[in-house]
Specification:
By secondary structure, the chain is mainly alpha-helical. It is built from 9 helices and no strands. α1 crosses α2 and α6 packs across α7.
Length: 210
């Protein structure tokens, strides 16, 4: 007996992926141009070349739209390649981060959303969750592998280690707004490795004295 094909309920909207992608791209462009406060569904629809109804079929409000965008960006996998050494892993990660943060839209959108987070709890919660996920991912991959290789102590605090990795690049590009040259990325990676190893030695010494 032939299996009957499952059909969508009569009248159910079929959400096309290409339209969803066009809307997300339009949101990114609008955020970079006018910021969250002045972002409007009308402007997003106009830029995406769709109707407002197409947006409201996917998201209830501009807040839901932006929160979904943050989730979509957060869901992208970081290229945490295993180069065989902590220095090599860090250098690749810092290059990727520097390239992403140099993008004009990132430089405009990130500070705006961080400012909006102070006024909108839902955005603050989503950004916090996103940063926690990134921190956990980087910690387990980069720091975890270094511990397995014996490059770092098992007592290394992964959270603080990731703060030390991400902080300098974010400060330089987003806060200070000055470029980070390729040759400097290598030096930053070397300094981070030296700091992490020194911290591990200090911790081991304290343990030995107890």
């Amino acid at each position: 007996m032939a299996t009957e094909k499952k059909r969508s309920p009569v009248g159910a909207a079929v959400l096309r992926d290409d339209i969803t992608l066009a809307i997300r791209r339009a949101v990114v462009a609008e955020l970079a141009e006018v910021g969250y406060g002045r972002l409007s569904i009308e402007a997003v629809a106009r830029r995406a070349g769709v109707s407002k109804a197409a947006i409201y079929r996917r998201w209830r409000s501009k807040l839901d739209l932006v929160l979904d965008l943050v989730s979509a960006v957060a869901g992208r996998n970081l290229p945490l390649l295993d180069t065989g050494s902590l220095l090599g892993d860090l250098e690749i990660l810092l290059h990727v981060m520097a390239r992403a943060l140099r993008h004009r839209m990132a430089l405009q959108i990130i500070p705006d959303l961080l400012a909006e987070a102070a006024r909108t709890p839902q955005i603050a919660e989503k950004l916090h969750q996103t940063l926690e996920d990134y921190q956990r991912t980087i910690g387990l991959a980069v720091i975890g592998r270094a511990v397995e290789r014996g490059e770092l102590s098992a007592a290394t605090d992964q959270r603080l280690a990731v703060d030390l990795i991400v902080g300098p690049v974010y400060w330089r590009l987003v806060v200070a707004g000055t470029p980070l040259r390729a040759v400097e990325v290598r030096r930053v990676a070397e300094m981070i490795v030296a700091a992490l190893r020194a911290a591990a030695i200090g911790f081991d010494s304290c343990e030995a004295e107890v």
